[in-house]
Amino acid sequence: MGSLMDRIKLHEGLVYDKHPYGKAPGRDPSLLTRGIEPPSELEREGMERISGLELEVFQHKMTSIVEEARDVYMALSISEGIITGDMNASIFTAEGDPAVVATGIYFHTLLNYGQVKYVMEYYRDDPTVGLQDGDVYFFNDPTCGGVHTFDMFVTAPIFHRGVLVGWAEVGGHQGECGSISPGGFSPRATTRWEEGLHIHGMRIADGWELRRDILDFMLNSVRNPFVFASDLKARVATCKRIRDRVLRECERRGAAEVAGALRKILEVSSELAKQRISKINDGIYRAVLFNDGVGQESGLVRLPTTVVKQGDEMVVINQGVSPENHKGPQHCTWHLMRASMGVYLFTYFFRGLTPNIGLLEPIKVLVEGPSVANCGAEVAHGEGTTISAMNVQNLHVIGSKMLFDSEHRMSVSAPFSRNLMIYVYSGTNSYGYRTANFTGTQNLAGQGARFDLDGEHASGFYWASVTDAGEVEESDTRLPVVTLARTIDKDFHGFGMYRGGVPSVEISAAPRGGCELTTRGASDRLSHNPGIFGGYAGPPNPRFVIRGADVFRQMQSGAMDLVLTQHNLAHEQPLEGEYHFDYSSKATESFVEGDLFIDSAGGGGGYGDVLERDPESVMDDLRNEIISAQVARDVYRVVYDGELLKVDLDATDEERRAAREERKANGKPFDAFVAEWSQLRPSEDKLTYYGSWPEPNVETYTKPFWGLFE
Amino acid sequence: MTARARIGIDVGGTFTDVIVSAGGRMSHGKADTTAYDLGVGVNNALRDVALGMGSSLEELLGDAESMVYSTTVGTNALVEHRGPVLGLITTHGFEDTLLIGRGRNWADGLAVEARYDRGRAERPQSLIPRHLVVGVRERVDSEGRVVLPLRDEEVLAQVQRLVDEGVRGFVVVLLYSYANPAHEQRIRDLIRAQYPEVYLGHMPVFLSSELSPQMGEYRRTMTCILDAFLRLETEDHLVALQDDLRTKGYTEPLLIAKCTGGASSMSRTRPIHLFGSGPVSGIIGAAAIAQQYQLPNVFLTDMGGTSFDLGLVLEGHERTYDYDPVIDRWRVQVPLVAHWSIGAGGGSIAHLQDGILKVGPQSAHSLPGPACYARGGDAPTVTDADVVLGYIDPDYFLGGRVRLDRGRAEAAIVDHIAKPLGITPFEAAWSVKRLVDGMMGQEIYRIAAQMSGLDPRDFVAFAYGGAGPVHAAGYADAADVSRVATFDFGSVGGAFGTLSLDITQTYERTHVDILLSATGGGTYRSEAIEPLNQAIELLLDDARRDMHEEGFDLSALRFELEALLRFGQQRHTLPIPLPAEHVGDVAEIETLVARFVTAYGDAYGKGAVFLEAGVEVLGLRLSAVGDVAQPGGNGLSGQVDDPDPEPVGHRVAYWGFEHGDRETPVYRRERVPSGLVLVGPALVESPDTVCVVPPGWSYHLDDKRVGWLERGGAE
Question: ipTM value of the model?
Fold first, then answer.
């Protein structure tokens, strides 16, 4: 890249394009950063043979295969995460790059190549291990190319008459993994040694038969061997299904054409990505987000994103990132930072292109490390997605700015909600099974507003394209809680010319016999759902529980017309009991019957100026109880008849004109703003884990914004 | 007329089809569907077929012994949101269930590409606006115990609120009402007391515990709403049509085809069961033929102008139910016979996207239609490609009733595809065909995999629709299917299928219990027997009541009972047939579980079986079938009036990069002698389609005049 990149200075002594940790048994981080493998002889032969038309037909077929696999996997599994879509199914090239994927979760589709390549590089020719048809490998170690230990995968080579043509891979959010907290998420973990089972890539089956000794070892390492075994069998069965289908295609086309076509899919995707990038205005684009906790306690953490775009190349730079803190699991690996970008890029930036790792080829990823965004191997990694999601949100804001003046404006929007809380309930369910899992609430987050539309309410999971939140009548029987409400709550989204979508808030009670709760989140005070072009951010989302509510007794008393919404419970506090609005990441605690849990995945940010929202749309929101009268009046500045909800247009125009005058009066020249802003500084207790202020890694740097520039 | 006629009618989006089986022969007719009044199109189509039989409409109707009617009246009403103003009463805390819709309802009913396009997600407009949804404080738990009693005064206040807002009917869906319907019933009693039926303005009340006693509050709510919303429109139409037919001489009951895979009289038909009755009737008809030919596994394919529809006969079963059915944009609980549709048809538009050829999902529809229709469209479509390739004779399209413009077809292909890609018109048209065939083939493949785990090679395809036989060899090849059957009546397959429908009622209900215990050391639970039998008896009661009303001798009924089983804590279930109407002892539970394990292993691989998890029952499904006598079988006929083994002519057709263009013989189907094997390339024309026989395939008509395309015929 030419001159624009020359304006960026990277810190000396820090790593950017690789991990700050080195090789270890079962791990070779260089495999994670070297990009798509060059085609093998076999692949080259097949690539030359297959026409563009046949490639299109082949790609349809492969997509059918992985989509079938996804459906089978979801059908067979019993982990709540898998059932609701937190998973993937893929076909990798023979050399180990993911070529065809079905989601589930987009970042899953851009990972796990490290483990496959490790098998190829270190085990295939090792006489004590080897590689043959019917082998199945298991992995979940985040430092080797995975996400967190509770995301578990299996992969199997696809041999056609002794020739390796590809790999089948299936996995997802299993949950319980033997970590210090039940159910996977361990907010209090500070090192990887507290995060349960770590398997880098281990052969668990020969000839598709699970090895009993290894299975026993794994089952003996987790709290719910029953669920673990069931889902592991589901993964292996699904992998075999993919393998059988691909082999049939080999019979029709020959091994070389199949292997070559898989590799060529990546090449074509890479070319299409370059074409898309080249049509967008060159420039340097920036955005920043702050986290308000580190796992064990509160504290500021910074994650800035800079994108340098020139010609058909892009560089994504995370510089000025807070250092590792060793106080919790919110540490991300370089490969997860890169893979997570797929969540924004595939749905929005590269909308319409087939998602696979080829689309990332023209994008260089530089993540300052060691830091929370590019961490060492020893820290806890379980909530690395919190950090990588901040980068995705920044990228979404940046991407919307980049695409606004392009033929792809349809993708311009505020980010999808990432203010999600995850409540992991453990206890005995209505069938009498011990369980530790979450409900589908995280799949009901609010969407960010679009350039021409409001965000959809409760429409999915942050990381996934299509998920299913299930129904309460079903989830209540599976989890040790009684869900009392699933509502679209009031004033719980970002306002704007187009407003963000509202999440569904789930209000649940501990059942007879009580239950345990572990929570994790990252936006109790600072939202990770920015608005765009003047839209408000989606609101923060702290942990909210009511102890001692004894809600069943209070409701049975019949005297109380309890309104079961978060808005009412938080504002009116109508139940007796202790109201806790807490830091979101909490270790496991016990609760008794009738205690209440209020959980949601957060509301999306708004788009554009609130004063430009159609007053009739404001009335619709009021009528549908999405906003309060206070918001209609004080934020949107609409004048209306409170009983009939009829807008007084002239009075509203006047009110909005006055609001604009107020803004002008509050304005100041940019230099004056910078001078004032540069003097501001959070209190020391907030900066414990931040690094140097304002630039975490350079004590002498005093500029008000982030990153080093000429 | 010498023999009493059986009449099948299928109203589609574009055409209304009628088929008449009488005296061992079949006749069919068509008319435009008249959306403003479907009865007009029905009359026109009946007249058309009567004319072809040398008869009049009145004579045909007067002589008819039965008439089965498949209609889209509900579909139209839903698309246009034509229905009464309804209010929804639900458990407080769940007033937003309709909107939330499991989070995924924005994507329900959309094509695959749109389902991934989350950035542009838009939910459909709700059939009940949010302000007409009210909550009442009550709670029943999952085992049917009352946790929080219902308060009459709150119910009455909420009902009054809805009445003040102008509602004309109530849908009542309370949490866990399938386990204990007492609160829902109480609400109905209160409404009836307040608004007695004897007065004008009486308002109907629909209880979810009656309409769909099944787990899943969103799907149950949508099922009830659709039923309630469509009732008036459906009833008005059916009553008017029945009266009209009666005045013209038809004296027998009008039977209604249903998406559950049977027919019933109007008084025993629910509006929601009318959805998709046309395609489902086609499947039932195909199953009857499959049985005749002893074909266990059949794909029914129907390629028309805008869509490619698929159904299947699986291991001889005529009814394979959709696991998680969606009607329009709504996820529901209906025992819907599974069928699928993708946007690939003769009108699908070919275009270049980032330099790569794509076909669909946009369609030119019938207006402006393909470029060759010369109605103003200039985008290249699949039909244009077929014309350019020489498969469709522009002068014999629809038997010569519509003249096509080959020049316009070629110009569209050249301008939009051939020139930009630097290839010949033949190559461009071939690429369009190859791609659309590939897409349809993948869909067949996907369905086979999803529904059965079977290899597509174990199936035979039936090709219906005007474009079906044109592309059948292509999509069959892509799907790995090597035999395709084509039919005389292929363009009216839905109407044909209605002739095979039995009188059928299907019921489902949730029944949750553990059959094989995971925690108790793997014991089969005898305690599960009595509750299971009680649940079965509830279904049988419904069935006996309804079939008695249909006039059947209850002892002659055929019952098909299935239990929906799963391994412990799974969400997904598999339907396993129960041989008897009650379970006698624990050995029968063991047999049932063994059947489930076998079916599960067959579907997902034996390695996936996990008996240690235990086995649970989640629900029951019962079909009560009253066989309808069908003299003359399904009417497949073996007569050829004027056989001629010679082609009627030759024309140049293009057969792909390997074979190039060839002078190709053209035959007329009605004159090809039975048993004569035509080796591809060949074209076999009939008035409503042309069967394309590529190199490497052969074609012959059997003694029932079914045309068989088979891969492997020597060139």
Answer: 0.93
